[in-house]
């Protein structure tokens, strides 16, 4: 096995804010035997230079295309907004580089399909940030279900709040309310959580949905503006899993004063509840409760302590680190254990089926 550290170049890294600095950098730092972040490219050369200085990186690339073509980079990490994924991932793949892209993979199904096809042609490791799938709690839950804790799964149901897509936002997040950007409540919190659900319970056999926009405007608190919103803030989905189990979900914009995340799995022998503070299953601390047989009340089903060994204490970089650990193994050993572009395409297909179903329903 090749134990040389994997050299990482990040596109879209700023030291003072944003996802890459709070999630990717501490995740990669927790795996020092596997990865070394050596370069950055941002929207301007000046920004890249400032970031390289702040993180003590040897390379500040003038453009993302300089980064992907550099022999110093083994793995390109794309953490920019969704509308830029397609161009940057395409460039990295055409340069023959391994690529890790934030979810959603593309701005819609068509882009995801093209990127998945190109990645297969290039034969590189191409992964996507569906980190809920590999979170310790989700892997523990997967084992519980596989070991028959609830018996045969009869049904599963979800309630989740998006956090965003409510009445207010800040300027940095206002793009989420423009559906054309591809970063919506359907694609981000709901999509991430569906990746986790599929990891535990398997794929869908059929699905239908209804998406509604109940708020027409959003107030941007730090600028004082009020602007139109085009992204739906209510998502209702029901369907059947390939196992035959019934599925239902309701995601709501903003935050509730009551339940913000509740996932139930009900079976012939028992029941499980998974709770969190927000409907982003990929970034909230999940708690698992269960009861079976003669139990009369739920009790904690905590993952074994060893599942957290060597991982960051904070849930956000911890889950991202779990993805990177699999990426390292995939690059070195030719495995395909990390969430792949092929996995991402299937998730895009699921979300597209929900959206198309909603469009048909609205016309009836």
Automatic annotation (TrEMBL):
Top-rank taxon, per record: Bacteria
Sequence ranges assigned to domain Gal80p-like C-terminal in this UniProt record: 136-276
Gfo/Idh/MocA-like oxidoreductase N-terminal domain ranges (all copies): 7-129
UniProt-listed SUPFAM superfamilies: Glyceraldehyde-3-phosphate dehydrogenase-like, C-terminal domain, NAD(P)-binding Rossmann-fold domains
Pfam family, one: GFO_IDH_MocA
Coiled-coil segments: none
Signal peptide interval: none
The name this protein goes by in its record: Gfo/Idh/MocA family oxidoreductase
């Amino acid at each position: 096995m090749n134990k040389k550290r994997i050299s990482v170049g990040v596109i879209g890294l700023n030291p003072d804010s944003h996802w890459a600095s709070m999630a990717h950098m501490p995740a990669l730092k927790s795996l020092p035997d596997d990865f070394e972040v050596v370069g950055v490219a941002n929207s301007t050369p000046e920004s890249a230079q400032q970031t390289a200085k702040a993180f003590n990186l040897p390379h500040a690339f003038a453009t993302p295309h300089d980064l992907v073509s550099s022999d110093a980079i083994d793995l390109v990490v794309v953490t920019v907004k969704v509308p830029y994924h397609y161009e940057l991932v395409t460039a990295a793949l055409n340069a023959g580089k391994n690529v890790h892209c934030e979810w959603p993979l593309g701005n819609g199904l068509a882009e995801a399909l093209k990127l998945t096809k190109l990645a297969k042609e290039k034969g590189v490791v191409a992964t996507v940030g569906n980190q809920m799938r590999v979170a310790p709690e989700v892997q523990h839950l997967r084992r519980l279900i596989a070991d028959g804790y609830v018996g045969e799964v009869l049904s599963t149901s979800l309630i989740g709040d998006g956090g965003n897509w409510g009445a207010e936002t800040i300027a940095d997040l206002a793009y989420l309310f423009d559906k054309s950007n591809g970063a919506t409540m359907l694609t981000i919190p709901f999509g991430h959580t569906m990746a986790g659900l599929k990891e535990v319970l398997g794929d869908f056999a059929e699905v239908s949905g209804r998406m509604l926009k109940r708020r027409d405007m959003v107030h941007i608190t730090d600028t004082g503006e009020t602007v139109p919103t085009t992204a739906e803030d209510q998502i209702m989905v029901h369907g059947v899993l390939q196992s035959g189990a019934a599925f239902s979900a309701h995601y709501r914009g903003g935050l509730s004063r009551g339940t913000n995340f509740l996932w139930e799995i009900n079976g012939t022998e028992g029941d499980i509840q998974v709770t969190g503070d927000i409907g982003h299953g990929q970034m909230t601390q999940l708690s698992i409760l269960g009861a079976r047989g003669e139990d009369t009340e739920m009790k904690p089903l905590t993952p074994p302590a060893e599942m957290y060994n060597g991982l960051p204490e904070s849930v956000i970089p911890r889950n991202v680190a779990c993805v990177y650990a699999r990426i390292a193994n995939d690059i070195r050993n030719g495995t395909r254990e990390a969430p792949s572009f092929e996995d991402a395409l299937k998730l895009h297909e699921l979300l597209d089926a929900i959206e198309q179903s909603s469009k048909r329903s609205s016309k009836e």
